[in-house]
Specification:
By secondary structure, this protein is α+β, with helices and mostly antiparallel strands. It has two domains: 1-56, no CATH class; 58-143, no CATH class. It is 50% helix and 17% strand. The chain contains six helices and six strands; from the N terminus they run αααβαβββαββα. It has a four-stranded mixed beta sheet with strand order 1-6-5-2. Strand 3 (79-82) and strand 4 form a beta hairpin. The chain is globular, with a radius of gyration of 18 Å.
Amino acid sequence: MKLIISILFSVLSMVSFSQTDQDFENKLNEIYAPGRVERILNNEQLNAHYKNVVYRSYKLEKVDAKKLKSNSFPVLAKIEKRNPADHSMIQVSTEEMVQEIEDGSFNILLLNVQRDVNNSITYRLENSNYLFTLYSHKAIAKK
């Protein structure tokens, strides 16, 4: 019985791992040329760095309205990202961005927002109770 459970767990882990790898590769392909994607995937350090950027370089948090009133967060009013189809800039609503983050389709590499080298920045998403934290380059490097 333990052997069967162990085998099932191994199979599920492999399926989950391959889906994550495919998702990661798809996100890279949305922004970079195939040659660059291949270099990232084949270089252990670049691969680890970009996985940190794609999956661990931001945080979305729904907060109580009281917290928003008692703190002054810069407002991210105009959310722009690259259209993966033609790389033109498009505007997305707060609702669209939140939905993409929640369903896992969000690609931080497409977002047109400046990341600070030393300081993480927390923005309030316009007309919402959401805070969006963009971790600094230093913070990403430590992950």
